[in-house]
Amino acid sequence: MIFGIPIQAFAGQLLVGLINGSFYAMLSLGLAIIFGLLRVINFAHGAQYMLGAFIGYLVLAKLGIGYWPALILVPIVVGLFGIVVERLALSRLYEVDPLYGLLFTFGLALVLEGVFRYVYGVSGNPYPVPPALAGGVNLGFMFLPIYRGWIVVASLIVCLGAWLLVEKTKFGSYLRAATENPKLVQAFGVNVPMLLTLTYGLGAGLAGLAGIMAAPVYQVSPLMGSNMIIIVFAVVVVGGMGSILGAILTGYMLGLAEGLTKVFYPEASSIVIFVIMAIVLLIRPAGLFGKDA
Amino acid sequence: MADATVRASKAGTANRVEMMLIGLGMVALLALPFFVYPIFLMKMMCFALFACAFNLLLGYTGLLSFGHAAFFGGAAYFTAHAVKVWGFSPEIGILTGVVGAALLGLVIGFVAIRRQGIYFAMITLALSQMFFFFCVQAGFTGGEDGIQGVPRGTFLGVFDLHDEHTMYYFVAANFLLGLFIVWRIVNSPFGLLLRSIRENESRAISLGYSVQNYKLAAFVMSAALAGLAGAIKALVFQFATLTDVAWQMSGEVILMTLLGGIGTMAGPIFGAGFVVALQNLLATSDFPVTIATGLIFMICVLIFRRGIVGEIYAWLNRRRGEKPE
Lengths: 293, 325
Prior knowledge:
The complex is a heterodimer. Helix content of chain A is 71%, strand content 2%. Chain A has eleven helices and two strands; from the N terminus they run ααααββααααααα. In chain A, strands 1-2 form a two-stranded antiparallel ribbon. In chain A, a hairpin with a 4-residue loop joins strand 1 (136-138) and strand 2 (143-145). Chain A starts with 6 loop residues before the first helix and ends in a 10-residue tail after the last helix. By secondary structure, chain B is an all-alpha fold. Chain B has 13 helices and two strands, in the order H-H-H-H-H-E-E-H-H-H-H-H-H-H-H. Chain B has helices at 16-31, 38-61, 69-84, 90-112, 117-137, 164-186, 189-199, 201-206, 211-237, 247-260, 267-283, 289-303, 307-319; strands at 154-155, 159-160. In chain B, a hairpin with a 3-residue loop joins strand 1 (154-155) and strand 2 (159-160). Chain B is globular. The chains are: A mainly alpha, B mainly alpha. Chain A binds chain B through residues 41, 89, 92-93, 96-100, 102-104, 106-115, 117-118, 226, 230-231, 233-234, 236-237, 267, 270-271, 274-275, 277-278, 281-282, 285, and chain B through 1-4, 64, 111-112, 114-115, 117-119, 121-123, 125-127, 129-130, 133-134, 136-137, 247, 251, 254, 258, 288-291, 293-298, 300-302, 305.
């Protein structure tokens, strides 16, 4: 018993919090990468996450393509979709106020959500847990479904991979340089427009990957994206979009905070992240890891 | 969003054509309920006022709020509760809604003005979503059912608002009052200062103005006017539900303003009229409203950033041989 709460319930809610936090981390990471270079807040990030889950669901139902191939296929398809969007539309908006980027991607999110709602309705569709990750292990103090453990590990790997890509590779160094001063980087012969396109594709692909990973945990529904994106916005405000590591850490922290609230005061669990956001804004307006005031 | 805003008509320079158009609009406002379904017109007026209140913030102060549904829907709940449960008269009920929305605006605005630009949009969205969840759980809102069967009451104890035409003129009077307030704010020294914040915030600060206080004041005024629109809507339709506080509603009011013309007086009215008419049209067809809304958003942002009224102003300016902005 911890604070009068059975340890199973306590650990169970913490695990749920950790799972949610994994998705917050992966999504806010993509948002931060896109915003860093493109100065666009990608409102369609939630819709691209939903798209990932739906493509995974559809290729399984129609073509019999299972979880593991989908884990590769889905991010590529969603990433390509992102590249098309960037080339056709977003690239025309870099010269105007960044708010237009937000409004355009908001419209895109509405269209994507609307199309899937129209075709598949609002009810959720179940996605089976892949056989290799079915079942669970008894840890003594709690029962851990293997798939949930996998989510935590896989999301840590994805976040670490993205961080290494941005901080330690040639591509990442171009990306960071272009974030600081795109004109100068262009003058050095780097194809900055191409870099912008690839970055948006990468961000969208990450959202798609989070989507297919989420499919067996949550129901695959057209509404799953818009429920997620507003929370992820709050996460991003709390973390500050200055650092990628900050976005990842804040994602996990707020997921855990949400889980803890479910244990002690369930009524507040849907708003706790927003309350934390308001408090952080009052004390430290730039966000926990933000550099700009 | 300075590049898309069009110079609003300055105080006192309303020329003869504009006066004529305003007069024509007034006559139409009086005569229309005899030709068009009054409820439909009242809905249009509610949303037009909502969009004008929103434009006060986006068009004239340069702040994009993504959470205005909280004030619109919040006021609808407050008014509905005051009239139905407490038995207030409609005028006091509306006042309750407006004051409630203003207080809500004070709290949300106080937190949100700490960041600018794109962060401001995300923060207002998050805080309004918090209010949405509050409304889902709070007892007085009736949860998923909302507050149903709200009585319209008798205005000043004389005019029975259950009569469709009496209600129409009551709404029209409130609509005009709201528009007049917006017009007065925009064309006051205070409004000019808001515009200077929009154009160059650091310069306004260096001139010694406490920009944060002005922003908060503008936010509260915009919230109160959005509340007026929501309060009236609750009386017109006689219910208040979660739809009015949901984030989709915040998106809708942005669309109305963007489509009509950000930073113009008439733009949001036309934008709201167009969107409400379109929704009415689509309600009878199979085509989902969300998709239409999203498509108009994308088209507006890509090729039509000045909006309908903004494009007309730009066209007139070109004809007069002035440089387009």
